[in-house]
Amino acid sequence: MKKSFLITLFVILQGAVTAFAQLTTVAQSPLFKEPVAGYARILHMKNGSTVFLQITSRDGLYVDIYDEDNKPKAQTHLSTNFGTLLGSCVNAVFESNNDITLFISEVESRQPVLYRIVIDGKTGNIKRDEKLSTTNRYAYFAQPFITQYEPVTSFFVRKDPNSENYALVVLHNNDRSVSGNLEVIWYTGAHKEISRVYYANSDARYKNINYLDMVVLGDEKVCLFAHIYNQTEVGDKKGQLIMATLSKTTDTLTLSKLNIGVKKVIDSGLVKYNPVTRKILFIGYAHAEAGDEEKYAGICGFVDPTRETPDQEIDIYPAKANEKTQALAGRNYTGMPQNVFLHSDGGFSIVYEELTRKQVKPLNSASYVYCIKDWLAVGSFDQNGQPQYTCVIPRHAELRNWEISAFNTERVSRSAQPLIKGEQYRGYACFQYKDRVYVTMNNTDENMKKAAKGKALAFHSVRDTDGYYYICDGNNELPEYAPLFGLNINKDDDGHPLVMGVSDYDADKGRFITLKMDKNTDHRGVRVVWLQP
Question: How far apart are CA 264 and CA 288, in angstroms?
């Protein structure tokens, strides 16, 4: 009887462990000094190595390379041509031809400048460092308002995840020295120019253009999405969503009006190519024309890059998340899309986040704005856009020094994480393993228990927190959480929080690679860690 009971208990426990796939630490790097300023990024390479980059505002680049066995291989400190990163932005970081390619922009003498830096993927040394592009200067009176953390918004880089090719968009606003107000440049992985073209809007009805995003489809074409519009007499916008296609067989942009977001003003957009359906997934932020600009909603649609099939707009409002939020907190869910993951069967998952701003006006000092990051939701859809399941994750964080923009999580995942006064510990990071989205975040154990009941609280000191993760699938609308590295039970000890946004994912081995705070007997610092579901 006792033996039968033990066998039954073992089976139950084994099933529980299987149902909640544990993240285990496969390897970790030696301890090193915590990066506290500039930008940081982990990049997994195709040859199995891992690269940690720190981009400083005044001291160049630090490069640490780990081999495929996760052992230190090379370490370099590089001087670069960019200056002090005034008005800086890390536009993109990716692998190309076994090297590391960085695009960094800044403001020099009121002029936005873009640099392209190529680092040898084996040695960590610079192979090329060049000023690639410039655009028209800021007005003289605007110079005092160009702050250290306000990024340049003149350059946009996208790489094709299925090839080595990439493209650059340069916005030339009100610059009569060029042939149009938008320039598209298409490159190979060896950084050779495939094509270059300008877009000059000739439609008198829509004099302005708002660039949204683009996809690069190998060496076949580049599809750029934008909202062209005109200001109405009442101060609102009236416009049209378009796709501009640059093909290898032409030297001009072919424009197509899209039947998505009709009679809506689309301010932000994210596009990804789905290789299973062979269509482009478009997600945007929009409000109705002549409507309340505060009432934004997420829009989504499928676009055939060949234009052989009609556009299809789908509803991505997270209704189930709204129901769960009402049940737990007695309010509506207000999250907007922040990222999207494509499934192996052509479906996809959207990560939603509630973002608001709160202005604080102290009596004896200047006012400032908090960026409030509230509840997350993950919605899964099949390849036809039909909802499959939704998960809700209560959380709360307040950022005073970092302004969060639309699709910020996705943008950071292909560029680099800003390191601003510890705000990088207050975000979250996601990755997808076997078509399930994993969400990681930092908090205290007490706050995590309260969040599970719908009462989300922010932590005060990052050293009191630990890293936690959720697995979002169809088993539970309110998924369970688990610690990544063990709990900080002794309050006199430091926890092991993650530096959010720095991470990368090894799709071949299914490993999440990130940075965690740690210490040894003599020092406190961080380590690169490799985690396996």
Answer: 4
